[in-house]
Every structure is written in structure tokens, then in C-alpha cells.
């Protein structure tokens, strides 16, 4: 998350907290007044401030998000293969000596299939 996106997110959260506090104060003020003519709906400025703060917080979070990963497994696997062991979560499993080298075994099998049946 970059510096600018953090500032935008913090600013939006401060506005959202202020809108929440204003809504609370408004409800406390009108709960003490027992007039039937008094409107208990939130004022438009509090509603607008809440919506604007939600848009600002969402914008800051989207700007600070990491790059999206590919949606398909094969695309992700291609990227991991290109980058090598740096991002591969299965690197430790693939490099353990007690496990088969699957790619090597597949290559041996393909070579054996190309040679054809063994004649005795």
C-alpha cells in the first residue's frame, strides 16, 4: 500500500467516524425531545458525508491493493515457473530428495514410448 493510498484511506476513515459520531449525537438529541412533530430521520448532510466517506475509503483501499493474480490455475503456474523458486509455494516439496522428480520420470517415459517395444 503506497503512501498516498494510506492517506486517502485514513482521511476517509476519519470522515466516516465523524459521520457516525454526528448520527449518534443526532439520535441522542432527538430521543430526549418528546415532540411528535420532530423528525427523527437523519439530516441529509450526515447521509451525504457517510456515502462520500465510504467512496473515499473504498478508493484508498483499491489504490493500495496488490496486483490481481490470474484467475486460472494454468496462468498462475506459468508465472510461477517463469519466476522460479522465488514465488513457488511448492518449492520445498519439489526439491526434497526423498520425492520423485516427476518431470524427469515423465521424460523417461516419453523417451521409452518413442523407442517402441523392446524386442527380445
TrEMBL record:
Residue spans crossing the bilayer: none
Topology of the protein relative to the lipid bilayer: Multi-pass membrane protein
Keywords: Membrane, Signal, Transmembrane, Transmembrane helix
Coiled coil residues, start to end: none
Subcellular location: Endomembrane system
UniProt signal peptide: 1-19
InterPro entries: EMC_subunit, MMgT
Family, as annotated: Belongs to the membrane magnesium transporter (TC 1.A.67) family.
Name this polypeptide is given: Magnesium transporter
Natural source organism: Aspergillus cavernicola
Amino acid at each position: 500500500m503506497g503512501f498516498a493510498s494510506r492517506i486517502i484511506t485514513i482521511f476517509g476513515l476519519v470522515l466516516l467516524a465523524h459521520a457516525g459520531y454526528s448520527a449518534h449525537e443526532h439520535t441522542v438529541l432527538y430521543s430526549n425531545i418528546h415532540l411528535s412533530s420532530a423528525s427523527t430521520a437523519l439530516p441529509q448532510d450526515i447521509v451525504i458525508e457517510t456515502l462520500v466517506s465510504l467512496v473515499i475509503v473504498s478508493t484508498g483501499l483499491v489504490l493500495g491493493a496488490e496486483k490481481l493474480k490470474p484467475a486460472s490455475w494454468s496462468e498462475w503456474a506459468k508465472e510461477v515457473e517463469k519466476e522460479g523458486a522465488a514465488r513457488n509455494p511448492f518449492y520445498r516439496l519439489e526439491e526434497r530428495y526423498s520425492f520423485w522428480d516427476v518431470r524427469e520420470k515423465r521424460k523417461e517415459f516419453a523417451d521409452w514410448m518413442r523407442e517402441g517395444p523392446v524386442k527380445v
